[in-house]
Write a structure and sequence with these properties.
By secondary structure, the chain is an alpha+beta fold. About 25% of the residues lie in helices and about 30% in strands.
Length: about 280
């Protein structure tokens, strides 16, 4: 089967699986519920004992005969949900802009704002742009443009604009050269502060590049951020995350759990004193 035929077959399988599924519920609103076990107390452990009924299967990621793709599929289905690193960059000469989604992405510090994003496989445009300009813009992905954001992952040639194919719009940044994704409700202008090459223990070849990015400027949609500019409204942001395979997830339900102070809990919670005294 040719590459073109394989791509057509893949889309056909998706369409067949997708057809009987219920329509996306655009009316669903952000809600806060109680926790899984509101009467949980120190020492209670898990709210279900089902874990006791199952054995653990051990897997060596580098065992002979295990292909790296199996580790990829396993890990993206286990480390979930993951935020989407929707990154826009620009070429050194300024003639081309690039935008692409990455699921190996995370916030790691706030002072200064610091993020990591890992680029694996092809995607040479993004890597080259980051290495040459040391700049990029992270754009939070929301429900209203997830289809367009996903489409920018298409394997188009360098001379074809992912922006045009996806129907997304550019907006000027303030401190860096790459553009913002105008549709995004929160954008972070960043500068590259470090690069880590990840090498395969099997071949020694560089298989991924991890970029450490410092956030230098924020853009927030006025109706999504609070008055003192310290928090976004989840009901309006409608963020989307990545899970296993080609699946995404929405953030429509949440619950709150307090952070506990040990001195207060030891004083006021008999179960804490009992556990500590027994040890």
């Amino acid at each position: 089967m040719s590459g073109l035929d394989a791509a057509r077959a893949s889309i056909a399988r998706y369409q067949k699986a997708h057809a009987p599924r219920p329509a996306f519920d655009e009316t669903k609103e952000w809600t806060l519920s109680k926790t899984v076990k509101p009467d949980w107390r120190p020492g209670d452990g898990a709210s279900s004992a089902e874990w006791q009924a199952h054995a653990k299967i051990q897997i060596d990621p580098l065992e002979p005969g295990r292909p790296p793709i199996d580790n990829y599929k396993l890990l993206i289905s286990a480390i979930v949900p993951r935020p989407i690193g929707f990154l826009s960059t620009i070429s050194q000469d300024g003639t081309r802009t690039n935008v692409a989604p990455f699921s190996y992405f995370e916030l790691v510090a706030h002072e200064p704002p610091t993020f990591v994003i890992s680029v694996s496989g092809g995607l040479k445009d993004t890597v080259n742009n980051l290495l040459e300009t040391k700049q990029g813009v992270l754009n939070v992905v929301s429900e209203w443009f997830i289809d367009a954001a996903n489409y920018t992952a298409i394997t188009s040639p360098p001379e074809v604009s992912e922006w045009d194919l996806a129907g997304l719009h550019q907006a000027p940044a303030t401190k860096v050269r790459p553009p913002l994704v105008a549709e995004s409700a929160f954008n972070i202008e960043t500068k590259v502060v470090d690069v880590l090459d990840v090498k395969s223990p099997r071949s020694g070849a560089v298989v991924s590049r991890v970029f450490v990015l410092e956030g230098v400027h924020f853009h927030a949609r006025e109706d999504v951020i609070n008055d003192n500019r310290s928090s976004l409204d989840m009901a309006k942001l409608k963020p989307v995350g990545r899970i296993g395979g080609i699946m995404y997830c929405r953030v429509s339900d949440g619950f709150e759990i307090p952070r506990y102070d040990y001195a207060q809990q030891y004083e006021d919670e008999p179960a804490v004193r009992s556990i500590v005294d027994q040890n």
